[in-house]
Amino acid sequence: MKVVLVTGMSGSGKSVAIRALEDSGFYCIDNLPPSFIADVLKRLEAEGISQVAVAADARTGKDIVDVPELLLNLRKHGTDARPIFLDADDETLVTRYSESRRRHPMSARLGEQATVQECVDAERLALAPLKAISNSIDTSGLLPNTLRRWVLDTVEGQKARLTLVFETFGFKKGLPTDADLVFDVRCLSNPYYDKNLRPLTGKDAEVIAFIQADQRSSELIQDIEQYLRKWLPSYLDEHRSYVTVAIGCTGGQHRSVYVAESLAKLFQSQPLAEIESILLRHRSLG
After folding, report:
1. CA distances (Å), origin 27, targets 20, 149, 268
2. pTM value?
3. In angstroms, rounded to a whole number, what is the distance separating the alpha carbons of residues 82 and 86?
4. 100, 92 Cβ separation under 8 angstroms
5. Cα torsion at 236, 242, 246, 252 (round to 10°)?
6. What is the pLDDT of residues 54-87, one digit of tens each?
7. Residue 171 to residues 3, 68, 92, 94, Cα–Cα distance (Å)
8. Type and span of the H or E element at 137
9. Which residues pair with 174 in a beta bridge?
10. Could you tell me which residues are beta bridge partners of residue 181?
């Protein structure tokens, strides 16, 4: 059985994720108390259901702290359990709730006088242990279609000991909250200042040739590759299933995309034994 646990901050897009999984054939359950998850999964497995998605978050109360142990037990018994933590920066979360005029779920525990920001802070603290063991996706500024694709990319791959995610972003929009490691490639020559290259991306041959003409590009990629090959195995000792390596340039369109694509190809052609799955995400390419 493949089990996807969809969790994260309120207002981060969990409803979008659950609908995407339901459309792709998963049996979906929203807001199931963690203490019931194991029994429900046994019942569904007995009925021949092989793909289940469960949404659980701070609405379930104090039981949410038991989820990491639950996931560990599921994996020990052979279940392909994959937690996805959806997050966003505080400004985005507060804006979404202000625009929707809905009450934040944490207000039921903090009191009606609690501000949205206070609710966000309390929820982030409560979910911190769960985020630490999950594949985190920062939904700040993401279009719903992009989020759907990223969620499906995450769950459709084969079961892996460690999934390596290369994610590109633009520094002018801020650091992504889902990054475990961040590399800044703004030191490379910028194609943006060439009017012919400006509308293209780091996937286009003209941009690739421009960046490769900067002799520092190959050295930078090699340094990042060597660092990752040395230290990524250590993440398995921390019982991590996902590591997100964020590559940033000014706009997230040219240099970061080229570097991330190059690194992904290097690890695909010469894989580490600890890594069995590699994902690419480009925040600014939508």
Report:
1. 11, 18, 32
2. 0.67
3. 13
4. no
5. 160
6. 988 777 666 777 788 888 888 888 888 889 999 9
7. 35, 32, 17, 21
8. strand 135-138
9. none
10. 245
